[in-house]
Amino acid sequence: MQEVKLSRREREKLRHRRQMLAAALDLFSEKGFHNVSMHEIAKRAEFAIGTLYKFFKNKEDLYKALVFEQADSFHEALTKAIEEADDEIEKLRNYVKAKGTVFMDNVSTIRLYFAETRGASFNIRAGLDNEIRERYGRFLHTTLASVFERGIQRKRFKKIAEPYQLAIALDSLCNAFLLLWLEAPERHPYPEDPDVILNILFKGLTEP
Amino acid sequence: MQEVKLSRREREKLRHRRQMLAAALDLFSEKGFHNVSMHEIAKRAEFAIGTLYKFFKNKEDLYKALVFEQADSFHEALTKAIEEADDEIEKLRNYVKAKGTVFMDNVSTIRLYFAETRGASFNIRAGLDNEIRERYGRFLHTTLASVFERGIQRKRFKKIAEPYQLAIALDSLCNAFLLLWLEAPERHPYPEDPDVILNILFKGLTEP
Amino acid sequence: MQEVKLSRREREKLRHRRQMLAAALDLFSEKGFHNVSMHEIAKRAEFAIGTLYKFFKNKEDLYKALVFEQADSFHEALTKAIEEADDEIEKLRNYVKAKGTVFMDNVSTIRLYFAETRGASFNIRAGLDNEIRERYGRFLHTTLASVFERGIQRKRFKKIAEPYQLAIALDSLCNAFLLLWLEAPERHPYPEDPDVILNILFKGLTEP
Amino acid sequence: MQEVKLSRREREKLRHRRQMLAAALDLFSEKGFHNVSMHEIAKRAEFAIGTLYKFFKNKEDLYKALVFEQADSFHEALTKAIEEADDEIEKLRNYVKAKGTVFMDNVSTIRLYFAETRGASFNIRAGLDNEIRERYGRFLHTTLASVFERGIQRKRFKKIAEPYQLAIALDSLCNAFLLLWLEAPERHPYPEDPDVILNILFKGLTEP
DNA sequence: GATGAATGAGTTTTCATTCAT
DNA sequence: GATGAATGAAAACTCATTCAT
To answer: Residue B141 and residue B125: Cα distance in Å, rounded?
Structure first.
């Protein structure tokens, strides 16, 4: 964002930080937060343990940095996807596609959310650190829900449920498809055509 | 299941086992698997640590016993709900209701799936120990999906997606609502009327 | 004190505790609190590190147990010495003798107070954990000072200073002699005859 | 001492050195040698860690520089106090006063000797790094003890103990009063009139 | 001379697990 | 079967010190 000139020292520092985060992401997503030691991360990043602690004051801190940075970039991508179209239906299509892209391009991050779980979680929104969860909740509540809201106002959509509920529904639908893909990518490819997913919402199952 | 006569000894043993599992469930759901020590569980259950190890050969084992027993009972309840009705729509209504009941009556268990998570999980099906997950997958694939399949055959449902996809969709919809409830029970009550959820599938958002 | 019957288990436990404290005392007095690791203590006591932590919840705790137990026994010995005589002068003689005995019999403990010091300390009363110091302060203030007070009332002593000041003075006099002894036991033996020390107080330096 | 002309460079260097020592003194006296890190000292002195190491080759070295410089100045002040008077009694009075001044004006330094102590120390002379202690021992043995010796020779003092013992006695008496002051300055002010302390030596407690 | 990033040995502490009684 | 003392590997974290710039 800021177009600041950084000294070589500072640029190097930033690079090192990124290397550490990358190593941590790898390991966390592979084995889960509790099953990775700081020594392991340091080793994988090819730094001494003390250096790791110079960058992140403790393990928690490192984890948070990781999650927040990833969450920010996801958030941005999804918001942009919605904003890039005018038409409500097009916005939703963009959203479904962007969600797939972001998810599939960042499997490590995604796995990071799972790996630790001993047992399941129920939905993308559960289990996240509260702040992240809330942030995502607000995103659904505002950005995504308002697409449905405007669509209903403009009579493009029938009001079969509250806008927020529709947002939640669409999101969890995408997640469901993505998890199928995660388990068996070839057997359950994430649909190229967003309408495969959207039609579940758009078309009525039961009647005209 | 088996209506075997148990000796007093055996009945006591079973009671002790249950006490230990109950203590473990409490603690795990409160703090997550990794943040609970075997000593803690033993203490809460009012047994010596050695006794705990007489019943469960290690922590993993204890955890699995817990999860499998809970999963079995959930599974049974959901299957029964579907089997109890004849009509497909009624089956789905029963499913939505049963899912709510089971979830809300077993918050500890539910939380057990989350508590550990450092980071999110995306869906009830992810993050579960593989076996549990697979089992639940098979359940969706067979029991629930076949409701949709038969409905489509009998022209009660339009084929807006594959039966399995519809099963996944309905399930993730329920989960989404349940997670809202978990976060803020009064603000987001799980709908008494299952049609609030089902209509999102049943009615078309866009057209006749 | 308590004449409780202890089970063999309990007796063993107590013995182990004493062994650990003894090892710790040795090491602390040799090298100072900060220069001794818990592993070292465990090793010297021939227990595993975990066992050490079962007995003392952390290093601080271990140190305190050590200091308090030693302080208690010192305190008791000094009090008893004073109470054992009737005559004020005899009480003081007993005190000077007991102080020497206790000090010389517990050089480790004494050194424990020094070893850590990087730099000096000024007096037996300084540097002690506050509670210990206060306790010793009260002892001087009450038990020892009251010997002087009664002596003055009964005209055995001239009131050349406040009783408390005299108590402090006598105590620091003993300490001074004991430290000389500690440095070079043969060159500066602690006087057998307590009057060598007491006379510095008793007899006037300057005039009749 | 040496009245050498120093270049600006050298003067600056000396000033930096003093700043570092001052920061270290502050911190050590506050928290004790072992609880202060070199980074902390560098930060407080507003220098980089590397610069600190340019001045002092290690932590020990820094500590010693600190202690020796302080000790020298104390030593000098006390010696001067004694030399400034002719009369033996006056010399002792000066000593008692100077000791109080030096102590009370340099509480940080004093505390430096205590702060680290886990446990007590018995006397100003114990616990000091050996060299310092010896130096102070020599001072008591020569400078202060010789005042008593001459006093005895010149029949101003009765020989109630060896000169060295008297020196030790007076010193430890002063220390005792100073420690009372350190604990509770208002409750136990260090006597303005040195005779309050000296009389404990001068006047006989028991008889003419 | 000044800087501060990097190092890694060493410290405290936890906890799953074993086993003699 | 029940007990709980003992174990020790392994984790998180600190800090004195070095050295390239």
So the answer is: 12
Tokens of C59: 């290093």
Residues 6 or more apart whose Cβ sits within 8 Å of residue C32: C115, C116, C117, D118
A117-131 pLDDT, tens digit each: 544 334 434 444 667
CB atoms under 10 Å from CB of B6, counted, come to 11
Q: Do chains A and B touch (3 or more CB pairs under 8 A)?
A: yes
Q: Do A89 and B206 touch (CB under 8 A)?
A: yes
Q: How far apart are CA D179 and CA D169, in angstroms?
A: 15
Domain C7-56 has CATH 1.10.10.60: yes
Disruptive mutation site among A93, A122, A130 for chain B (greatest number of B CBs within 10 Å) = A122
Q: Do domains D7-56 and D64-202 have the same CATH topology?
A: no
Domain assignments of chain C as residue spans, ordered by start: 7-56, 64-202
Distances (CA, A) of A202 to A160, A168, A185, B168: 10, 15, 25, 17
Q: How confident is the model at residue C125 (pLDDT cuts 50, 70, 90)?
A: very low
Q: How confident is the model at residue B207 (pLDDT cuts 50, 70, 90)?
A: low
Q: Do B156 and A206 touch (CB under 8 A)?
A: yes
Closest to D121 (Cβ–Cβ): which among C127, C165, C168?
C127
Tell which strand E nucleotides have any atom below 7 Å from a protein Cβ: 1-21
D2: how many CB neighbours lie within 10 A of its CB? 4
Å from A35 (CA) to E15 (C1')? 14
Q: How many helices (H) and strands (E) does chain C have?
A: 10, 1
| A126 at B interface, C-beta within 8 A | yes
Structural contact between residues C28 and D117, judged by C-beta atoms closer than 8 angstroms? no
Q: Is C116 left (phi over 0), alpha (psi -120 to 50) or beta?
A: alpha
User: Does D196 contact C at CB distance below 8 Å?
Assistant: yes
Q: What class, spelled out in words, does domain C64-202 have in CATH? A: mainly alpha
Nearest of D47, D38, D40 to residue D18 by alpha carbon: D47
Interface contact D179-C117, CB threshold 8 A: no
Count residue pairs from A and B with Cβ separation < 8 A: 211
Identity of the residue in A117, A179, A180 whose CB atom sits nearest the CB atom of B113: A117
D205 interfacial to chain C (CB closer than 8 Å): yes
Q: How confident is the model at residue D81 (pLDDT cuts 50, 70, 90)?
A: very high
Question: Is residue A200 within 8 Å of residue B205, measured between CB atoms?
Answer: no
Q: Which candidate in B118, B135, B158, B178 is best for mutational testing of the A interface (most A CBs within 10 A)?
A: B118
